[in-house]
């Protein structure tokens, strides 16, 4: 006869096995529309327009696909409405598969909508459980999110993957959705994103690039940083490595442009804040070790006086660029994209408590001193210009 204790344990195990019979609410991938990117625009009639870039079943790249005719790998759908969830419902009516945001890697905000203010829809679109907060957010420059998502990208079968890879690279400013939302809600810093614009390739086909930055004040776009100004922000953001700097060291003549180009091998930023008459002042020091890439001058970089002159000129040019960029964020954009408020908060918490609510109004008048120190540590395989080498062997 089976002991009662063993009988009870056996019955309990049998009951537990019933709980593992399958996923009652599972969804097959064949039933899902995989959204790779989404876009937000303000339409001409003032409505919100949402655009989705969806991977086609045969458009998902695989190792088995090669050669042959280039086929469509994505479909793009759009719909208008008053608010996000209503629009998602309209989009779903266009699709035979259920919209799934778990693969979305990019959120594109149209320029017109960004200038209007983005609070209306962020909560609706990002509250969905499958939304990824580590997706990148970019702002369209001079165009709409819809146009960006309808633009092909020859290097990738799915254009959204192209945007993702550019954002992962070293030459583009990148911010993810969670970082962007934190900045929108912060008193200490202003939001910023990469700016994507449509260009034409050498073959005349449209493509896109991310070579600018979009600056926000709170929830509204106030302007863009240029390609040169973006260097200052990238340096501050710890992304100076690999940056190219070209300086006009000598006047241009018929034989030489008079320029020196260097590449940043390592860059650092140090910031110090102080309080004077109850208001903050900021001092920032930028240092970089660089290597020479191109010498389009008559100068021999092997000579110490020439080296010092080149270092001084590059430091002077970068000082002007960084100081002018900071000044523009203060006077024109009125947005603390360099997070000076955060440094004041860290170093002077008592003062910060009294000024944090007015920080965005105080920031435009904060004195900022900039110091730049650039040293050339490598000069390539040759120090003298090529023309001097040629003359030597004549």
From TrEMBL:
Its main location: membrane. It is a lipid-anchor. The keyword Lipoprotein applies. Residues 25-187 form the Spore germination protein N-terminal domain. GO terms for biological process: spore germination. It holds the Pfam family Spore_GerAC_N. The keyword Flavoprotein does not apply. It is found in: Membrane. Keywords: Germination, Lipoprotein, Membrane, Palmitate, Signal. Residues 212-380 form the Spore germination GerAC-like C-terminal domain. Belongs to the GerABKC lipoprotein family. PANTHER family: SPORE GERMINATION PROTEIN B3. This is Ger(X)C family spore germination protein. It comes from Paenibacillus sedimenti.
